[in-house]
Amino acid sequence: MKPLLALIATVALPIVAGARTWTSTDGRKLEADLVSATATAVTVKNAAGQTFAIPLERLSEEDRKWVQSNSTAKPGAAPGPGTSASPTSNAPHKPIEGPYAALITGDWALSKHEDLPFALYASKELSAAQKYPLVLALHGKSQNDENGKQVGGWMKTFAKTENYAARPCIIVAPLCYQPFGGTGGGWYDKPGTEAIDLVKKLMKSLPIDEKRVYVIGYSMGGFGTCHLMNSEPRLFTAGVAVAGCTGVDTANTFKKRPLWLFHAKDDEVVKVEGSQALAKALERADKTFKYTEFPTGGHGIIGKVFDDPEVHKWLFSQAEK
């Protein structure tokens, strides 16, 4: 169910029932309590206590009929002040324009910046009148040589209905065409440079909050996350690196930007000792970081990390002061 990011009225009306499973017109489902309804939208609250509004036109026919029969909303009821999907949705909706506006589709849209293919996800309900976090997601080494295949399940967690309703954002996932051990040095190489340039161009064109620009990555992307946070400290607010990181020699050059490292003790692909050593070096250098080590999971802990709502909450709570 896609969030409504424009201001929608939520005039409280008598409601007969509350908790239910809501279904969007594209088949997505959301467990939430009904709080109130108007002639054009419903306000719901999820299990985490987050309240947001959803336009009736985004709901299934069954849900629309249920709302009609279980509330006293009058057709043509005038909008009034209320709560929207985003806690900061206090301005009228304004269409996004510019060279990247066509990529705001509510699905993963594919494009290319110079030699760098990339996928971008953003809800069609985003408004140019607001600012949203940007998440740069760096994939690991793989045989993915087709744009779109780099969008792993862990990246898609950011676009899941409940996650996105609570934390609307713009997600960009570039495709590294020079992976480690192949034709180049992964995100340390030209693809990383082009990814930085792409982020800067997106920030100029799209309604991005420059104080909430995040970089996350897995394996080769974990190395890339640490590298880019180290080389571009004024650009990135915080990062999450899973099963990959830079060497201890970089600890002193990290700025005080929050970094969360994850690794599994039994990882046979990228040894845990690297993350352990960097964590100790960052601690000695008095840097801002967290380190989580799983006893098992091998090199496949990425799903476990980003399936955890607390990781999303932590990341999106980081903002440059």
UniProtKB/TrEMBL annotation:
<feature type="signal peptide">
    <location>
        <begin position="1"/>
        <end position="19"/>
    </location>
</feature>
<dbReference type="Pfam" id="PF00326">
    <property type="entry name" value="Peptidase_S9"/>
</dbReference>
<dbReference type="InterPro" id="IPR029058">
    <property type="entry name" value="AB_hydrolase_fold"/>
</dbReference>
<feature type="region of interest" description="Disordered">
    <location>
        <begin position="63"/>
        <end position="92"/>
    </location>
</feature>
<feature type="domain" description="Peptidase S9 prolyl oligopeptidase catalytic">
    <location>
        <begin position="194"/>
        <end position="255"/>
    </location>
</feature>
<protein>
    <submittedName>
        <fullName>Prolyl oligopeptidase family protein</fullName>
    </submittedName>
</protein>
<dbReference type="GO" id="GO:0006508">
    <property type="term" value="P:proteolysis"/>
</dbReference>
<keyword id="KW-0732">Signal</keyword>
<dbReference type="InterPro" id="IPR001375">
    <property type="entry name" value="Peptidase_S9_cat"/>
</dbReference>
<dbReference type="InterPro" id="IPR050955">
    <property type="entry name" value="Plant_Biomass_Hydrol_Est"/>
</dbReference>
<dbReference type="GO" id="GO:0008236">
    <property type="term" value="F:serine-type peptidase activity"/>
</dbReference>
